Amino acid sequence: MAQRMTAASLVRLAFVFLFRVGLELVKGGTPVVHYIVHGEKDTVGVAVVDLKKGQSLTGWNMAKNSTLRLKAAQNIPLGHKIAVDNIAKGEKVIKYDEEIGNASKAIKKGQHVHTQNLKTARW
Known about the structure:
Elements: H1 7-20, E1 26-27, E2 30-31, E3 35-37, E4 44-47, E5 56-61, E6 66-71, E7 81-83, E8 92-95, E9 98-103, E10 112-113, E11 118-120
Parallel strand pairs: 3-5
Antiparallel strand pairs: 1-2, 3-4, 4-7, 5-6, 7-10, 8-9, 9-11
């Protein structure tokens, strides 16, 4: 008997597949998706290609199946976080609809979110 897959399982499977094929979501040689936001409440997304300062970006919110747009404020490497909203100093940073830490300084929409401006919730 075949097992039925949930929508969440299908999304996860698609995400893994995209990483394995090098995220070749392209149209005319240009990436269609530059970053992915996992949860409905997330304040950060994950770069699925290297992002360049000033680049106009298209994102995909997996939970809402919606398209997002913003401009990269800094260079952001593949796999790193990008702020999809302004985040005030001390505010919770949300990824996968979970608190992953607090902003150690104000973070503007489109900026790189990493150790220079994020204090992990674990420490």
